[in-house]
Each structure stands twice: as structure tokens, then as C-alpha cells.
Amino acid sequence: MKQLLKKSLLPIIIIALLALLGLQLTKKPQAPDVTFNTIDGRQISMASLKDKVVIVNFWATDCPGCIKEMPELIKTYNTYHPKGLEIIAVAMPHDEISQIQNYSKSNNLPFPVTYDQSAAITELFGKVRLTPTAFIYNKQGDLLQRTMGELDFAALQQLLNKELGA
């Protein structure tokens, strides 16, 4: 009787383990639970951005690729922010706060800018070291895309149109 019970339970256990593995493989990584402190004194938590598509963009004032993509990032923000996009620009720990403030002001950055002086945010996002690096999250906080290097803005527009129904 015990042997029969073991034989009948084994396939059930295997099926349950395979189902659990399949669920884990299809589950998308979630946005880290972080609160951004912006250079203008505001606090923005990732949790407060639910129901928005969010781009967390790691950049530096001494990064040529970051500076090159910034005008397109501004244009993307201005186009899609009214439709539910939020962009958080995270300046890297090696940057100087005065340079970040000067760049943000002189380029009229319309989105929140934060300075990751302690490297806590870069750590939460998987130890970001290369700039630019962007993380794109859907309205549920699931990671849609991680891009190291400059964004492909044509592909980004397609993604935003799909996610925001624009």
C-alpha cells in the first residue's frame, strides 16, 4: 500500500514542481522598492508610480551617450507624460551635485532628477555601473526592458504606444 501511494504521489509532485518552475520563469522582475530624493527636494517612491509606465534612467554629466540622448528623452517625456509616462533621471555617485544642478537647469529637464550620492539606488537596480542605463517598467511595476547604452527611441515609442494605448 505504501509503495502504491509513493508511486501515485511522485507524478503529482513532479507536475507541481514543474508548474512552480514555469511560473517562476514567466514572472517578470519587479521594480525595487525605492524612494527617490530629487535635487529639488521632492520624494518619489516607485510604489507611488504604479499605474504609470516608468523609465529609470541612470546618467552622468560626463557621459557622452547620456548627453547625446537627453534631447530625445526630453521630447519623449513631453509627448508621453500626459499619457502616463514618468521618467526618473538618476545621476551617478561619481557626479558632482553642482554639475547635475547646472545641467538640469540649463537644459530645462522636465522630469525628476535625483542624485545617487551614496550609490544606494544603483545597488538596488543591480549595481549599475555603465551609463546610460535605462530600466522600463509597465503600469504593474514589471520590468519590460533594461537597456545598457543609448536608447533606441523608435523602438521606445512603439513600446510606449503599446503600453500607454497612445
Structure description:
- The strands form two sheets. Strands 5-4-3-6-7 form a five-stranded mixed beta sheet. Strands 1-2 form a two-stranded antiparallel sheet.
- It has one domain: Glutaredoxin (3-Layer(aba) Sandwich).
- It is globular and about 70 Å long.
- 42% of the residues lie in helices and 20% in strands.
- The chain is built from five helices and seven strands; from the N terminus they run αβββαβαβαββα.
Notable features of this structure?
single chain, 166 residues, alpha/beta, five-stranded mixed beta sheet, 42% helix
Q: How do the helices and strands follow one another from N- to C-terminus?
A: HEEEHEHEHEEH
CATH fold node name = Glutaredoxin
Strand order of the largest sheet: 5-4-3-6-7
Number of strands: 7
Q: So, the CATH homologous superfamily?
A: Glutaredoxin
- Largest sheet, strands/sense/barrel: 5 strands, mixed
Structural class: alpha/beta
Helix amount: 40-55%
Inertia-based shape? globular
CATH class: Alpha Beta
Total separate domains: 1
Percent strand = 15-25%
Radius of gyration: 21 Å
Rounded mean pLDDT score: 89
Number of helices: 5
Low-pLDDT runs: none
Tell me the span between the first and last alpha carbons: 62 Å
Looking at the overall shape, the CATH architecture is 3-Layer(aba) Sandwich
Organism: Methylotenera mobilis (strain JLW8 / ATCC BAA-1282 / DSM 17540)
InterPro entries: AhpC/TSA, Thioredoxin-like_sf, Thioredoxin_domain, Thioredoxin_ResA/DsbE_sf
GO molecular function: antioxidant activity; oxidoreductase activity
Protein name: Redoxin domain protein
